[in-house]
Each structure stands twice: as C-alpha cells, then as structure tokens.
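quick one: zinc ion bound model?
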Amino acid sequence: MGRPAEGYWRFVSVPVVIVLLIMGFSYHTLVVLVIHPWLNVNTTTGFANVALLTILCTMALHSYALAVVRDPGYIPSSYLPDLEEEVAVHEVKRKVFLGGNRYCQKCEQYKPPRAHHCRVCKRCVLRMDHHCMWVNNCVGHYNYKAFFLFTVYASGAGLQSMILLGTHFIQTLGDEGPEDMDAKVFSESVTSSAFPRVICAVILVPALIAAAAMMTWHFYLLLHNKTTIEYHEGVRATWLAEDIGQGYRHPYDIGIFINLVAALGPSVSCWLCPSATGHLSPDLQCETFSGDILEME
Ligand SMILES: [Zn+2]
Ligand SMILES: [Zn+2]
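yep, here:
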C-alpha cells in the first residue's frame, strides 16, 4: 500500500506552490500591513485578531499538508473480494444501482466497494472522491477529513481576512494621518502599503468563494455519506430507477450523525482536528441503510 518513494518532491506541484504562496502572502499582509498598523497587536483587539488568524491559518496549513502527503487509500495488490454467495448478491445490487464494476481492468485486480480507479494516479483508490490538482493527490478514504477541514479553515481565515481588509479600507478613507506627519509623506506611505492590500483582496475574493463553495458542497456530501463520484452515480441511478417506476436511495446514507461519525470520527471533540483519523482503520466496513455490511478490505 502506498506509492513508490520518490522523495518529498513528489508532493510538490505548481498548484501546491500557488496555494502555499497565497496563504503566506495573505497572512503576512494581514498581520504586518493591516492589523498591526491599524489595531496594534499590543491591544486586546489587535492581539485577538492576530491570534484568531494565526490559529485558522495554522490549522488550514496543517490540514492542507495532510491532504497533500497522506496516502488517500490505495488497495493492496493482495486484495481479493469475499466471493461468498451473500456478498455476491450485494455486488450484483451495487452493479444494478450504482453501475459499479468491481474488477479494475487497468490494475488487473478486484476493488472493494466505493473504490475507483484514478486515471491521474493510475491506481485504484479507496472511497475515492476526486483527484484534486490543488493538493496534487487523490482525495480518498484516508485524507478526505483533512481535505474537508482545509476548506473549513481556509474559509474561516479568508472570511476574517476579507472583513479586516474591508473594515480597514472603509475606516482609512479620508484619513489625513497624524497631525505631526507631513500630508505628502502620509499619502505616500498609505499608497505604498495599499498596493499589497489591494493585491491581497483581489486574490482572496475568488479564493474565499472557491473554498466556501467546496466546504458547502462537501458538507452536503458528508451529511449523506456520499463521495462526489457517488453523487453523480446516484443521479444516473435515480434516472434509471424512475424509468422503471422505482426509487433510488444512496446505500451508505445511514443517518446524519452516523454519517458524520464515519467521516470525522466517533469523538465530536476531535471533529475539527485533521490528524484525528484513528477511526479510519484499514479493515473498515461499509455499512448500508439496509443493515448489510460490505467489506472494504
Ligand atoms: Zn485500478
Ligand atoms: Zn488520483
């Protein structure tokens, strides 16, 4: 299980560098060019804002690093499905309702329920959600929580940054500076620091929209214990079922709280901790709403 070792460089790509640069540049701009000169970090308000932004950025970076470097869940070449009659029935049900093919022609091996072949990684991935170029990795069984929490913390940090940038901009409009400072000198200092603040806002607006949209989408998927692939399969399965006068229900949706526990862990206090993934054991089984258990590994 795991990709061949090629050094840490295998995790680096242009999009990964862009994400890290955006995070570093935004944090530096907010702390050095907005919060400190405007609110002063020695005041309670200034310190609280720096502390909150630092916590959100640190957790976003931590989640992002895990999403990038963590193995998303490759299938061991030794995997063989249980071909007992009972499981075979479930496999037939899956093929009918989800269009699944449990044998990967490319890897020439069987794949467990919810696993899919990634054309970029050229491997099958457990509970594959999608291949994300922004983490240069597949998002699957073992790094989905980190990926989701990255969208949560990035949205929080982006929202706080935009509120600070906007409020600072409004409050400094028409500000003529301290009485003992020459108006021209003050104007030049404001102009020189305004450029990186404007660049920061231009970068953060689309980044915040993208992060918030991803967070909302994956929160919806979490509530229903679906992957992005299964969502699209479900749309197709619903059409097919309606064609023959039947309904379709996603087989792994077993209740909102249990769905959240399956993805985020049994301890609610650890739901926001990206490294708390002890619940994702390699012998995890997929429980369905009908009470069936499908073996993943
Ligand atoms: Zn495959
Ligand atoms: Zn992939």
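Residues 1-70+143-210 form one domain.
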